[in-house]
């Protein structure tokens, strides 16, 4: 072969290399995010999710695509949205909340699902066991039943002279509603207080619940841990302030927004764990082998400014227990 022919052949091959290398680059993995909420309501959850994914080496828009599907608090839309994600053949489906998780579970038995739920996922039939889920689902369980009972006890310690405490929960999430109500009523019988159960699944029903609290002269309020209620932080805190009702909330976000007191996990931290698990699944680990994560620590947050506005003296023992005191 003449030297000129060799150089021409070599140049042609070199010109083809970048194209061939580009063609062989793997497509970015796609994660489906199925939520009964909205982009605005899920902002803190998404911050935590992305943080966990980043910690696992995945950055949205750089080496990961997230397909979002929002039901806008219309749970009957979730099955079609879940089916859409399945049709797209996403690598993983992330489901915040029980109703979204159940919709995803009904839609696929093969695509991995990483959930965050408040109920026992074994009792719900989501997994075979906490240590060995055994199917295509795993995730995070925040134990809302225990949180409700502990929250009631802390609220009673703050206002020990009150005979009746209101309990606000969302009846449109029946499994969560029944679990929380059962545990709160059981804790109330031990403490020796009555519970006024209030149901709210819309903004108007939240307003009506506070009217009922005032009419019944109920002395305090425990807000249940529910996706819908957790998306109504400003409304709930404002109503409690307007009617001067001491309230215990399930997330720090409420206390940071002016709520009196909160007991539970940090929403962003919870979803960071979901993001980490999603990253592990993307790297090849099977949900069947990933134990369901349960939090080992909850935090008590007290807003002293709000306590002063309500003319409540926080017991020193309660202040000593607090993980954070907001001045």
Q: What does it look like?
A:
This protein has 327 residues and is of the alpha/beta class. It has two domains: 30-142 and 267-289, Rossmann fold; 144-264 and 298-326, Response regulator (Rossmann fold, 3-Layer(aba) Sandwich). Helix content is 45%, strand content 18%. The strands form two sheets. Strands 7-6-8-9-10-11-12 form a seven-stranded mixed β-sheet, sandwiched between helices. Strand 3, helix 4 and strand 4 form a beta-alpha-beta unit. Helix 2 packs across helix 11 (267-282), helix 3 crosses helix 4 and helix 7 runs parallel beside helix 9. The chain is elongated and about 60 Å long. The N and C termini lie far apart (85 Å).
List the helices and strands and how they pair.
Blueprint: H1 3-23, E1 30-35, H2 43-55, E2 65-70, H3 78-87, E3 92-96, H4 98-107, E4 113-117, E5 137-141, H5 144-158, E6 164-169, H6 174-191, E7 194-199, H7 203-215, E8 220-223, H8 227-230, H9 233-242, E9 247-249, H10 252-256, E10 261-264, H11 267-282, E11 299-303, H12 304-309, H13 316-321, E12 324-326
Parallel strand pairs: 1-2, 1-3, 3-4, 4-5, 6-7, 6-8, 8-9, 9-10, 11-12
Antiparallel strand pairs: 10-11
Summing up helix and strand content along with how strands pair, one would put the structural category as alpha/beta
Tell me the strand percentage band: 15-25%
Mean pLDDT: 90
CATH class bucket of the largest domain: Alpha Beta
Q: SSE order, as H and E?
A: HEHEHEHEEHEHEHEHHEHEHEHHE
Major sheet summary line? 7 strands, mixed
Radius of gyration: 24 Å
Distance between the termini: 85 Å
Q: Please give the oligomerization state of what you see.
A: single chain
Shape: elongated
What is the fold named in CATH at topology level of the largest domain? Answer: Rossmann fold
Unreliable residue stretches: 1-25
Fraction of residues in helix: 40-55%
**How many structural domains can be distinguished in the coordinates?**
2
Number of helices: 13
- CATH architecture verdict of the largest domain: 3-Layer(aba) Sandwich
Largest sheet, spatial ordering of strands: 7-6-8-9-10-11-12
CATH-assigned homologous superfamily of the largest domain? Response regulator
Number of strands: 12
């Amino acid at each position: 072969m003449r030297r000129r022919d060799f150089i021409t052949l070599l140049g042609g091959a070199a010109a083809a290399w970048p194209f061939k290398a580009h063609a062989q680059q793997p497509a970015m993995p796609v994660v489906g995010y199925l939520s009964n909420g909205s982009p605005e309501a899920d902002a803190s959850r998404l911050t935590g999710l992305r943080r966990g994914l980043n910690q696992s080496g995945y950055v949205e828009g750089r080496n990961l695509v997230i397909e979002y599907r929002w039901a806008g608090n219309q749970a009957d839309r979730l099955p079609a949205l879940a089916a859409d994600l399945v049709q797209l053949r996403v690598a993983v489906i992330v489901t915040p909340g029980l109703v979204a998780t159940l919709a995803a579970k009904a839609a696929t038995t093969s695509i991995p699902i990483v959930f965050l739920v408040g109920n026992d996922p074994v009792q719900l039939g989501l997994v075979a066991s906490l240590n060995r889920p055994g199917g295509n689902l795993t995730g995070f369980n925040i134990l809302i039943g225990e949180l409700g009972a502990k929250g009631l006890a802390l609220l009673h310690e703050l206002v020990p002279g009150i005979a009746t405490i209101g309990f606000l929960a969302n009846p449109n999430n029946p499994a969560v509603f029944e679990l929380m109500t059962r545990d709160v009523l059981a804790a109330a019988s031990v403490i020796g207080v009555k519970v006024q159960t209030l149901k709210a699944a819309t903004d108007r029903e939240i307003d009506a619940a506070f009217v009922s609290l005032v009419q019944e002269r109920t002395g305090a309020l425990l807000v249940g841990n529910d996706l819908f209620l957790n998306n109504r932080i400003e409304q709930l805190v404002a109503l409690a302030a307007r009617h001067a009702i001491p309230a215990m909330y399930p997330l720090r976000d409420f206390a940071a927004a002016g709520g009196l007191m909160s007991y539970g996990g940090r929403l962003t931290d919870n979803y960071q764990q979901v993001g980490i698990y999603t990253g592990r699944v993307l790297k090849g680990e099977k949900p069947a082998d990933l134990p369901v994560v349960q939090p080992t620590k909850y935090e008590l947050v007290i807003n002293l400014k709000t306590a002063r506005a309500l003319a409540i003296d926080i017991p020193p023992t309660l202040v000593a227990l607090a993980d954070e005191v907001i001045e």
